[in-house]
Every structure is written in structure tokens, then in C-alpha cells.
Amino acid sequence: MKLYIDSADVKQISRINEYYPISGVTTNPSIIVRENRPFIELLKEIRQVIGHEKELFVQLIGDSAEEMIEEAKFINGKLAGNVVVKIPVTEEGIKAIRLLDSEKIPTLATTIYTSFQALIAAVAGAKYVAPYVNRIDNLTGNGVKVVSEINKLFNTYQLPTEILAASFKNVQQVHDVCLSGAKGATVGTELIEKFIAFPATLQDVKVFKDEWQTLYRTRTIIY
């Protein structure tokens, strides 16, 4: 499983990146605007935190394929390291994915609500597709089922595109998409911190330490 931080908050990214096995950071226009900073400066700071090997995702906002391609080249010219551009699955977006694939610029197809949208994006050459799990649920759909259908289609047609599931409200949704074939998930920092949180774990650790200290009069194994 690849785990990505869905945030542009540098402080939070730094903390999660320090403690968890992170593959990169995903952003979108709303996340970046929330930080109220010059966006290239912000993205460069995120790059400094995560290093050059981990992927940094930046969403394009152009209306036409030509505008998206121009933006993709601009972003790649401004940012060092492993950059992936996010493109919505509109007609212009699919065209842009095709053209960028021919230029070896990796893309993620975003705003995906159906398995067939994901299939078209994958055939066009997207490296990743991002189905919106919780948003699908909110539209009386089944986000986990859509992920499962995408996985089945990709396996049927032997497509190399990876599912990077997005939009979660709880840990159970992330767990379920992992079981449904998603290769990765992009998750907010607060939810990532809940992945390993379980009261019994901390209780057990305390018991171990207390029993050790009772006999050896120390709370460490170093002597």
C-alpha cells in the first residue's frame, strides 16, 4: 500500500512524514488556497520536507487541454523531484492526459465517480486514478464498490494504472478500499494519526514497562 498525505499544511506534513511510511503528498486547489500563501513557494517547502524521491501531486486548473499542458510544463519547470500533475476527467482532461503521456509527464486522473471514468483515464495513459470514495457515498453510491470495479477492470485489461483512492471520512473506508484492490490512498493528517490508535495498545505498553520497572528498577533495557 502507498500512503499519501492529503494536505498542504507544511507543519502537519512534516510531522506525519517523520513518523509514518509516506509515499508522497497530494494537493488540490482548495487545499492550497486554505494555506493563504504564494503557491509555488508553498509547494517548494513541501518538497523540502518530503525530499525529491517522494511524489508531490499538483492539480491543474486550465479549462482546455492546451492550457493544462502548459500548466503541467510550468509546474515541472518550477518544482524539482518527482512531480505528478492531477487532471479532472473531463473531455479536455482526457485529451490532456493522452498528450502528456506522450511527453512522459505522469498524471493522476481526479474527480472520479464511476469505474468507467477510471477505465477511460487509464486507457488514455494516466499513471493513477483517484476515485472519491466518501463523495460517492454521499451521492447514494458505494465508493468501495466503485474501487473494486475499477480494480477488476484494470486486471481484466492488464492496465498498469494504479488506484489511488481519495476522499475519506473514517479509517474503515480506507481499510475497505485496501481490501478492494486500491494500490494506495491519499488521506488527511488527522485520519492518518488514527490508523494505529487503539487504547489497548497503550495499556499493554504501560503494563510491560511497569512490570519491568518493578523487578529491574529501571524503565529502560539499557544498563
From TrEMBL:
One of its GO terms (biological process) is carbohydrate metabolic process. Keywords: Cytoplasm, Schiff base. One of its GO terms (molecular function) is aldehyde-lyase activity. SUPFAM superfamilies: Aldolase (SSF51569). Gene3D superfamilies: Aldolase class I. InterPro entries: Aldolase_TIM, TAL/FSA, Transaldolase_AS, TSA/FSA_arc/bac. Its main location: cytoplasm. It comes from the Bacteria. GO terms for cellular component: cytoplasm. It is found in: Cytoplasm. This is Fructose-6-phosphate aldolase. It comes from Neobacillus cucumis. The lineage of its organism: Bacteria, Bacillati, Bacillota, Bacilli, Bacillales.
